[in-house]
Give the backbone structure.
Amino acid sequence: MNFFPRVALVAVVLQLGLGHARADRPDLDQSVMVFGGAMVDENMLDAANVFGSDYEDNALIGLGYQVFPYQFGTFRFGLEAGLTGRFGQSTSGEVWGGVVGRHDGVKLGPVSVAPSFTFGLSHVTKSQKGRERDHEQERDGNARTLFYLGPELSLSSDKLPNTEVFWRLHHRSGAWGTLGDMHGGSNANVVGVRYKF
């Protein structure tokens, strides 16, 4: 079975399960987001230094959806999926999905700061010229399907509690050769806006 039919099958199964959760919880937390940013020629840790990173001539724009059917105290757990267009030295598309955990946030006066973390899988139409393609060639690997990690910090205000601005490290990795015989993949620093409903 091809990759995309598998993803579609998983999405349908998850949607059926979440449809049941929505019936039980009409206040189910959902959100949509749009973001953009630049790819970084650094490892994941160094890429998190937003102002000191070595940026590539590659950019990306994306949109995503989150749903949080589970809450334990101030922590929420759910699913995330998204699409990204990658442009610059070459052009490619990305689809990703995974599980997401999020803290409700810490109040700093009229502003809330909330961390979250997404873990899942990412599939691209082709590897992007730059760090990702270089790593693919060095390892004789395949960067098309890799793990996805998305550590994030978001800010919201008391005046607009359902709207957030956020920074995220958009990270793709083979996890030391586990997928595609790849160690690293690609990193991007992105900023975006999320609307919760």
